[in-house]
Amino acid sequence: MAELVLGPVLRHVDASSATVWVETNGSCEVAILGRRARTFQVGEQHFALVVIDDLESDASIPYEVAIDGVTAWPEPGSDFPPSRIRTGTVRTILFGSCRAAKTAPDALGADRLGPDALDAYALRMKDRPEQQWPDALLLLGDQVYADEPTPRMRQWLVRRRGDEQPRGEVVSFREYAELYHESWSDPEIRWLMSTVPTSMIFDDHDVRDDWNTSRIWREQMAAKPWWNRRIRAGLASYWVYQHLGNFGPRELAGDELFREISAATGDVRELLEDFAEKADKELDGRKPTRWSYRRDFGRIRLLVIDTRSGRILDGQRLMVGSEEFAWIEENAAGDIDHLLIGSSLPWLMPPSLSHLQSLNERAAALPGWRGRLGEKVRQAADLEHWPAFRASFEQLAALIHRIGDAPEAPSTICVLSGDVHHSYAARATYPNPTKSEVLQLVCSPVHNDPPKYMRPAFALSWAKPLAAALRWLADRRGISPDPVRWEKVSGPYFGNSIGCLDITGRSARFTLETAQEGKGLIRVAELALPMRGEPTRPL
Predict the structure, then answer these.
(1) Pairing label, strands 45-52, 60-62
(2) What is the DSSP pairing of strand 136-139 with strand 198-200?
(3) Contacts of 103 (CB under 8 A, 6+ apart)
(4) How confident is residue 110, by pLDDT bands cut at 50, 70 and 90?
(5) Beta carbons within 8 Å of 370's beta carbon, 6+ residues apart
(6) CA gap 222, 231 in Å, rounded
(7) Averaged over 196-209, what is the pLDDT?
(8) For the residues of 277-337, what is the DSSP string, one character each?
């Protein structure tokens, strides 16, 4: 008899419907609140996405998961509250990125990556009234680390395939599945994700460090005998574990691949991996595969951008192609109170890093040894964010200005990001001011605190004299003036953290909480939005 392996994960929820994702260890029928779905098979794994419609609006509905008629969730003896689907107004949105799996305790019994902020949030949440629970969770990349597995995972890989290359990295769909099992199996995380609707987007470590940083990087990867298998499995597993749940019933009904997989009676791994390989090769700007997506929470719009797979790396480098950007422009506009742009990579970096990345893009394009050196520096220093795609950096700045200066402009436009292993808030201003307040909010990491010796370097990147010197050099190299100015209004903060936006009408409040060993979550920042010129509250 089939058993529940992973999940349930509550994904898309609106006023009358929800989707719930599960993984099982065999073919079966999964039932939730009277709605049923057959599992589909991908290699050794079995999955189902249960679409639950005709839900009561503005309600809190407890649910269980049955497999072939037998209750599989909640687990017997669980001390967590019942999992629930809440169809009311979305006001509180959590976000963050870079959540590695827990590691074996060190000699002092501590996780070497520090306490997990999302784990700490779940433990606190379960003891609070339901009215204080968050309404949504946005995971902004590096949900798994395919190229930096835990020691336990590396041992598992050795037992599975010995010395086969690449050592210490995953390659197959089954190996990716083990990463997700390791990361999402904690009781606290399973319960939180069964109760808080979760949206996701990839970043580089979901596939490999520096994924699609340049044409040369792609050529280097393509020369490795295992790479084709890796990219096929990486994008196929992302579709199953993360991407599939980003859509509601209407989008799912119109998705040809989902319909084909739902109707299949056998293993669909080859079908999925062929789709993944095709998606990886779509680098000409005309991409039938779209990983970006939009969610509307009443008058709050969440627009999540693919900043990895859709890059244009030949000719003028672009973070996203022209067709994709046209879709972004179309979906960014609307009669809304708040526009949230989810980008795994920050748009507004520490200024010195921003100028350095634009300088490096120019240097790497030079002929001969100077270009080769520029490329080596780009890969070694991870110089691949929006400013390293200067044309796209300016294009996004222009789009945000148009939306923020429209007659019915939203109150705030917030770019939510992660990746950079420190957290901060920065406020943007334009020569022609916008009606909307424009902010870059960064929360990174959730659980992957880097060594503390790196913190001074992160802090230095905000130093104004260094930024001025690099901007002077950028001017000398012919790099266009920045179309927007920005200043840090809170941070930088270090340690494993979770960001939160509490939204009421046209006002919002950003808070950042950091996990501390033995203390749970400690609030380190609080910011009322729009700020209207007010300074951040010190905590």
Answers:
(1) unpaired
(2) parallel
(3) 111, 112, 113, 150, 151, 152
(4) low
(5) 363
(6) 10
(7) 97
(8) HHHHT--SS--S----EEEEETTEEEEEE--STT-B-SSS-BSS-HHHHHHHHHHH-SS-S
Identify whether 492 is preceded by a cis peptide bond (ω within 30 of 0): yes
CB-count exposure of residue 83 (10 Å: 0-12, 13-18, 19+): buried
CB atoms within 10 A of CB 220: 14
155 secondary structure, DSSP code: H
- Short-list 392, 420, 408, 200, CA closest to 313: 392
pLDDT in tens, 261-296: 999 999 999 999 999 999 998 655 555 689 999 999
pTM given for the model: 0.96
139: closest CA among 76, 201, 184? 201
Find the helix or strand (DSSP H, E) in which 40 lies.
strand 40-42
Distance CA 33, CA 52 (A): 7
H or E stretch covering 258: helix 256-263
* Burial state string for 273-307 with b = 16 or more CB within 10 A and e = fewer than 16: bebbeebbeebebebebebbbbbebebbbbbbbbb
Q: Coil, helix or strand for 516?
A: strand
What is the Cα–Cα distance from 509 to 227, expressed in whole angstroms? 44
- Cis before 82 (ω within 30): no
Strand pairing class (65-67; 70-73): antiparallel
Q: What is the pLDDT of residues 411-444, one digit of tens each?
A: 999 999 999 999 999 999 999 999 999 999 999 9
3-class secondary structure per residue, 427-459 = EEECCCCCCCEEEEEECCCCECCCCHHHHHHHH
pLDDT tens per residue across span 515-534? 999 899 999 999 999 986 55
DSSP state at residue 417? E
* Residue 160 dihedral angles phi and psi, to the nearest 5°: -80, -45
Does the CA dihedral 8-47-302-448 come out positive or negative? positive
State the Cα–Cα distance between residues 509 and 123, nearest whole angstrom: 23
Start-to-end C-alpha separation, the chain = 53
Residues 6+ apart with CB under 8 A from 279: 235, 287, 289, 309
3-state secondary structure (DSSP) of residue 481: coil
